[in-house]
Amino acid sequence: MSDTAAAGSAGRMHKPRKRGRPSTLRLLFNNTLATTGLAVLVAIVLAALAAPLLPLPDPDVTAPADRLLRPLAEGHLLGTDALGRDILSRLIWGTRVSLAVGLSATLIAAFFGSLIGLVAGYAGGRVDTFLMRGVDMVMAFPYILLALAIVAALGPGLINALYAIAVINIPFFARNIRGITIGLSRREFVDAARLSGKSSAAILFGEVLPNVLPVIIITMSTTIGWMILETAGLSFLGLGAQPPQADLGSMLGDGRKILFTAPHVSIIPGLMIFALVMSINLFGDGVRDVLDPRLKSGALTRPVARTAVAQEREAEPRRHSGSVLDVVGLNTQFHIGGDIYRAVGGVDLHLKPGECLGIVGESGSGKSVTAMSLMGLVPTPPGRITAGSAWLEEEDLFSVDDERIRQLRGADVSHVFQDPLSTLHPLFTIGDQLTEAIMAHRPMRRSQADEKAEELLRLVRITNPAERLKVYPHELSGGMRQRVCIAMALANDAKVIIADEPTTALDVTVQAQILSLLDALRRESNAAILFITHDFGVVSAVCDRVAVMYAGRIVETGETEVVLARPAHPYTGKLIDCVPVLGQPGRRLDAIEGRPPVVNNLPAGCAFAARCERAEADCREGDIPLAAFGEGRAVRCLHPLKGEAADA
Amino acid sequence: MPETALLEIDNAERVFGGGRTLFGRALPAVHAVQGVSLDVRKGETLGVVGESGCGKSTLARLIVGLDRPTAGRITFDGRDLVADARRDPRALARRVQYVFQDPVASLNPRKTIRAILEAPLRHLLGLDRSGREARLGELMEAVNLAPEFLDRYPHEFSGGQAQRIGIARALAADPELIVLDEPVSALDVSVQAQVLNILDGLKTRFGLTYVFISHDLSVVESVSDRVAVMYFGRVAEIGPAREIFAAPRHPYTHLLLKSAPVPGKRSLIPEDANTELPDPYNPPPGCAFHARCPRGTDICLAKHPALERVSGAAAHEAACHHPVDEGGHVRA
User: Fold this and answer.
1) I want to staple A615 with a disulfide (CB 3.0 to 4.6 A). Which of A378, A529, A609, B284 is the partner?
2) What are phi and psi of B65, to 5 degrees?
3) Beta carbons within 10 angstroms of residue A589's beta carbon
4) Domain range list for chain A
5) What is the predicted ipTM?
6) Looking at chain A, which residue has its C-alpha nearest residue B196?
């Protein structure tokens, strides 16, 4: 319904994006070690490539009279070896050979190894078993023994050494690539390609391979150094480069016999091997860090334990006395690249003891960031709290020290998250995790904690609690796991429970139970609940009041029944109208035109104006305040819907 | 019955695992789908609802030929679909298509939208370059996307746009039946309405038949002509949508409807009993819902109820020994 317009806006939005995330190259150069590696590598490669052009003596010409000259001798910068050959010349020519062999071996191993991995991973079943057992057999031999056997069969020589090294490295690629391929070939886009009529070969090489390619490149960048080392090893044993040809390994081998009389003959090629392999590995690790999508998305940034609070922030006074939580003017921003994303742009909310406030909004509206900001759970970097205060009774959560926040987390303020399976640790029993939650805040004996844990499980209506303490999270159903999470949230008499979409991942019958459980528990324990959801049905079931968020701000708040029956903000009205309601199949679904604005580029005035039918010129200028609108209600709109009932 | 069935599923069964080890020990087997019989008439939307693990997605994969039943027959337009899918998967893909749940995961991140949409045109319809170009324009127009989007990559799209691309891909080969597996459950509510409206428009425009799978009762109610409720791999109740939602006969359907949250309704009706699905490796002998059922008796434990027509309503069937009375309205 929207998107001829959205095409334009998306296009506009697209250009400034360039500054958004740091580019691959910039990320790589941020890594000092990788940059150093690259510099050394480039220098070595340039020298090796330029060997024919450099004014070097012939590396293979012997001069018995000048044998074993020390480095810095006249005419021989690095001295000469046992046959009087110039070491500098041999070093550069030898590096050339070693590089060429290492690189070609890597390419051959990568090609065949990846092919085996791709076919085995995609075909599965017998083909997989057959190919991978073959690979296992190659791996079963110590690699140097296998290389020796291959060279013994084919005869010594550089080319044969290259084959040997390629073969023994095939398993490394095959296993790596197979693992990735198995994951990819069960993905939905592969099924979709099959339904588009693509043949298996077309899917494997057209759909799967492009996604595997980065992994192949990463694997190559981390193995090429190893391959050069192996080539040197074979040459050292006299099985690779044959005299008089120089390569780093054979030079080392030649120097071995005279290690004590003329150490420079072996030390110099040894240092070269070290410099070459080290530079390749450092650079390869850097490449991997940059190409790996998980690392790229910020896993390398190492967030700190608590969201940074901007120093220029000024504490806001409390507005609602008697409230257990009073958030005033909260601003949370994300600084990514050169852009500032105003995820939360001035949110006020308050909770009385035992009250349940629902925060409703679509994804990207800032509802979760609001909740995570309270206890400093927004990752820094890139997130930071730039303004506002969150009063937990008499304390401003943004002013207290880290130790105090640690004490409050899981005690006075606790969280229940959407996916209980990822919240619970898979390797510890329910009992371990519950007692840990209890003992982290109240030192007591383990037996006492066990009793308390049992009591908590009983509280969340889990039958047979003593037995359940001994089970692992995967042995419980989704609903049971969420009950355990709720028990954990209640472990230390929380004053505020932040429930972030706690039932979204659950089936509807289980959702009904969890909702009624939460509702009953807050009445029993008088804990206030901040309930985040996108579902108005869920809000109606448990929340006393509701706050609707759009583009990082609350646009409407009030008592649940009143807001749902007579929404005042056009966005609330549209949001209600676009959801099908059970029991009203004939209801027309009014989709909301367009898309929410991106929070790094908010329009002046009302963020919803572009999608609003009631918008007028004044909506697009100036800041629109959250104005009182009847008893206990507030609306951020200049032209609110007045008493025009939603078609409920 | 006014119209003949386009798709008929007769006693379909899909067992995962099973078989024996090298030493003859039986391996555990899961019946993802068992004894499912239903038909889909031309031009209708059959909604399939059920909770996670009830076998609805497996059923969907059986219908489009991505998976094969271990027993039973599936016929499409009078021909054996399973045999056809084995012999010529492209012929089946021309007539039956699929829309995936996760719109972003179903698009290859390294292909442009053009490449993704061209695949079915090239492989299924064998169109030449100019034919493909014309068809691409039609498809983008049908799902309300600007043609400039064709040369972008999937990560540049929001969930709703990505799902419309998924729908365009399913439409590309001009199929008769589209299986929609949770097509809107990964989307925000405002976007969900856009996609539902587009699906509705396309159905009339191209004379499509839908099998619409969802766990969201209100969505299914708003789109379906008939509804099948699945529980633990079987059809618990099937019938006209209006009747199922107004007067559910199976206690499970009753429970589902009672549990669904409705905006503006405060009542919470908890269910106290053990609410877990039976162990799929060790299913109970009788009715799988017995442990949760308030109406269960001894016969439910002993014998699995067959899907039978419940009195009065035409083509309204429930698999229950003690169906809820007709007067048992869930909501006023």
Assistant:
1) A609
2) 85, 10
3) 21
4) 31-49+91-296, 303-409, 413-543, 562-635
5) 0.88
6) A589
